[in-house]
Amino acid sequence: MRENENAASEERVATGTVGLDHILRGGLSPNHLYLVEGTPGSGKTTIGLKFLLEGRAAGESGLYITLSETEQELVAGARSHGWSLDGLEIFELATEDDLTSANEQSLLHPSEVELGETVRGVIERVEASNPARVVVDSLSELRLLAQNPLRYRRQILALKHFFAKRKCTVLVLDDRTAEPNDLQLHSIAHGVISLEQSASDFGAERRRLRIVKMRGMQYSGGFHDFSIEKGGVSVYPRLIAAEHYRKFAKAPVTTGLAGLDALLGEGLAPGTNALLTGPAGVGKTTTAVRCMIAALERGENAAYFLFDERLATLMIRSKALDMDLQPFIDNGQLTIRQIDPAELSPGQFATEVQESVENQDASVVVIDSLNAYLHAMPSDNFLVLQMHELLSYLSQQGVVSLMVLGQHGVTGELRSDIDVSYLADTVMLLRFFEEGGTVRKSVAVIKTRTSDHERTIREFRISSDGIEIGEPIRGFSSVLSSSPSFDRRGENLLGQDRMDGGEGA
């Protein structure tokens, strides 16, 4: 008997929205009434229709009771997602005839007549159809008819007990037209899913959901980003690094540059992240691409998330520097995703990174750059928390993460939008310096957590042959401050010929 009870307690009803089912650890407990609340346009109807369509696919009957939208509007909305509502029953509780002046009466208050008739209409249709899944859209109409909280609560309780006896799972939708602190529905419903949307000063609106309560169920708490796309609602569960771990080889891997490997001590260690920081044009992106190509040449996969520049520009420049990326894209080893931070939520970005690791087996992930990623976040604190969780996840997956951070300014004092260096396992500092009227570039590793790294500063240059790393610079001081001084001119520099005009980024 106990085994049967446990099996029943673990039974779940899938909502059809994959990310939401993941948050709910498989779906909803059957035969209960759930509240889905949100302002108009937040996605309640889409979730409700997908819930019924999922039931139809499982051979369960579904009933959509609408008190506000017409059947034509529901069918048109479903068609926009590529859905057909065939096999589902749609019941319009308020028809066109009910709204004519001929049906108006003045002897009794509308709440004394229409509310009772509305509730009876719902009960009669459910009894006639005997559905396994029901969606009621929306409770705001019942609230207006009730006129007072007590009457409204009694009617909702009556519906709840009625549905419980019918052995059906019910979603009731509410558009939050009640007072902000009115939590009557929260106390009555078995579970509450809250949808939120907010408009930003620039770019698309941001949507997120939260499970307010679920009686007797485990679920992932907190806010989860989501978007409404063709095909339904896409929910991006909040990334929890502690839930993801796999075994991986921990031997250091080469960057493809002997001089850079020497600076790092042993190269880049799997499960660590490296921050490449410096002014614009110094070569951060090119260095990251070179490290990534070394992994691709070993037969590994990689994912590149490009925020700042156009994909075509990256491809042209990389090919000109003898680092052609196209062959690796063609054979499926490399995936490059150009991202518009104004259109992509942080949760969606984290989900895409997770999919690149788990579905495409990427062993190297490049984020270029953190500056643009910052503008996708509502505040600096969110950036740090989100990035910390994402880097922890990549670390537990054995991924080498390369992050590019641009600094404001070119020479002299440089500054960043935010300091994330404490999150990085390795920090590479790239700088310009001048020698004999020539602009040169330097690279130094100022921090690694995995090996005893070299404390020197090396010159590097970018040409049509790629990247060249020189010997440690001995004749200069204050190179990292971008105001260097030197005693022995030209010593240990990369030749005295005219520097090649290769571009960095």
TrEMBL record:
InterPro entries for this protein: AAA+_ATPase, Circadian_clock_KaiC-rel, KaiC, KaiC-like_dom, KaiC_dom, P-loop_NTPase
Gene Ontology MF terms in the entry: ATP binding; hydrolase activity; protein serine/threonine kinase activity
Keyword Membrane (UniProt): no
CDD domains for this protein: KaiC-like_N (cd19488)
SMART domains, A to Z: AAA
The KaiC domain, residue ranges: 11-249, 251-483
Keywords: Hydrolase, Kinase, Phosphoprotein, Repeat, Transferase
Superkingdom to which the source organism belongs: Bacteria
Native species: Oricola cellulosilytica
Keyword Transcription: no
Protein name: non-specific serine/threonine protein kinase
PROSITE patterns, sorted: KAIC
EC number(s) per entry: 2.7.11.1
